[in-house]
Model the fold of this input.
Amino acid sequence: MTNPAAHKGTLRISAVICTYNRDRYINMALDSLAGQDLSRDQYEVIVIDNHSTDNTAAIVKEFMANHPELNIRYVFEPRKGLSFARNRGWQEAQSPIITYIDDDARAVPGFLQAILEMFREYPDAVGAGGRVVPAYESGHEPVWMSTYLNGFVGKVEFGEEPKVFEGKMKYPAGCNMTYKRSIIDQAGGFNNDLTFRSDDKYIYYKVTAISNKVYYTPKAIVHHFIDDYRTAFPNFRKLFLKTGNEEKVRIRTEEGFSGLVKKFLEYLFKLGASVLLALGFLIKGQGSKGKYLFLSQWFTLKGFLQKEVFVR
Done:
């Protein structure tokens, strides 16, 4: 389904929202993209509905009707899995740059403009990852959170200056990642065997095997809504189990048996390191930080060893 808005200019960037049963939040993400500083004839919004069974479709279609001036499309993707949705997103896009934000994220007004400015300033860039600021439903960060668990809430903060992703910076978070359409195509797209986690890592590694010019873009900011369910222990356990499980799938696809052995040894090392770090937190009177850090590594290793972890 497409809005009747005509493209008066050349589309420069496509903002893709992949969503599954998030009718509570989808309007927040759409509102933030409708409120961009960038001229509306220079960007489009594509909502990929990954077989939602709630009111997502009706909400998006109502939003489209209320914003006829916005270049926005609704696309239903029947194959369940985040990578199916993200692949459908870049394949549907009509512009050369594809940026992904989550359905529970809110982009600041200058978000898309900042990404385009980065590509202008760094013409060798093939991708970008912006800043991600967690916005907790409770109003405060859980007492057990530490920098070691930033990935659990998608937090990305590497200072005020653009720089190439490398070393401890790892890779752009899936809720704020951008790639040229041509480089995604050249990399072969996302791995459809990854249904929930690790697809942002997968595409980053595939892209950087071609070019490492993926830049951290500090002015491209999204606020990532973290509801109370996400930080509850059952979900914490489930997500780290799934992280380990999908890392196994990713590595098996890319590196085979030797890669799996190396990753297993890496996880064992990290589990041991988490014990030492947990003791350090305990000495500081921050026992809960140490406990959750250890459990994150324990569940990741357990998920890696399990055959399959179901999420949906």
Remarks:
- The chain has a mean pLDDT of 93.
- The two ends are 26 Å apart (CA to CA).
- The beta strands are 13-19, 43-49, 72-76, 97-102, 105-107, 127-136, 163-164, 176-180, 214-226.
